[in-house]
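Contributing new complexes? Match this layout with zinc ion.
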Amino acid sequence: MTRRCIYCGTEKDLSKSDIIPDALTSAKIINPNVCRVAHNNKFSDMFENEVIEKLALITNELDVKSSKGNHYASYLASVIVDGTEYSTKMSTETELFKQKIMRSIDGKSIIGPIDKIKNIKGASDENVTEIDINQLEIEKKIVLDLSVFFGKSMYRLIAKIAFEWYCLNNSVTDKLSEFNSIINFITTGEGKNPVSIVGNEKIYHFFNQMMDMGSHTLISYVDEDASVNILVSLFGIAIYNVRLSDYVIPQCINNILFLTINVDAKKSYFKYSTLEEMEKEIENGFYQMGEFNGLKIMCPQNFNDVTMTNKMMYYSCNFNKKELNCCNDMDDKLLALIRKQLDQVLNISALTVRGLKRFVKEHREAIDKGIVFNPFGTNKKAIFMFYLIFICGKTGKKVQSFEDLTSFVKNKFSGKQIAISDEICEEMKQEMEAVEEYARIISQGAVIIENMKFD
Ligand SMILES: [Zn+2]
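Output block (do not edit by hand):
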């Protein structure tokens, strides 16, 4: 059978489309039935790049980088040093004072490496002050404009993700007229917007419990009015509902679909035609271990099957649009909800090999010199990372692999992701500072991390 573009039906020059743009995810999913120019490449300029650019802070913090450029996205931040505010585009904190010269917002001061500053015309001993950035409190303020989550470009991107993913799972290899309305919206931005934002806070809690923070989740369901819908949770920050078609299209038989992609690139996935089919599989996934006071004790056949939890969650949720409480407008309540989700994602340190290696690489110079904690330091995430490096160095042979470190963190903080409070941060700092030669231990730990395997 000839494959054709799912947007326009051409059989010429088909290409592989990244269903979720490469710069927004650490694991690829691909739809191969999209024509190269009009419905793949052109989408970048039409709506994808705008969203990618505006979410740079999030992808950077979650260690997601584009494989094309192989670099982390830079974002706009303001940095307050000794009471003066500077505005800059930054990608890592350690690069801040190394190369760039930054101008203060009031235009009265500049800051940068001392040799560069002294070379500036008009610089003299009177107007140049040398400061030790390790002894000053540096406050970073980041502004993320939340309107990106309610913008037309975001809606088009979310519709594209849902449409291409659903077609992939239903082996759609041609343009189907049933999808005309959503195709029109994705390709032109006009017509009826099929995307709305889930406003029910309970649904967000539910996702938070089931999925790691920062992951993407896609779920399809058939609504009470028989329409086919996809839920798209973007980084766990905003959850969207996409109405794909008004009824189940006969050739699309798989309508119970689930996918989640973690920040560490691991995927969990299932696909069924009906709820009944899934129900049967759940039942078969358990066996009766015994009986206690007349209650059957059931046990999963395979403890390693992580999708079983997701299946049971799907089954218990009974998705319908009324319950989801969807809307399109940026009202205050929804804005507060998204801000809360965003704060959670940004304050959580997910433990990934990639993130650890990146941190060591960026802090190599300071580690070589011998780390001295800034007494006024407030960067909780950095303290957590140094602590992990310290643990690797301190335990010597015990923590050698990423798996060792993960189980250490799981034991200590009961979870792979932890929200670092001021108290936990202070405890970690004290534990390190109690060891006289902590700088040397950190340096040994850094070597262990550099040698950890990457999958
Ligand atoms: Zn096309």
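Reviewers usually confirm one structural detail per submission. For this one: Residues 405 and 411 are 10 Å apart (CA to CA).
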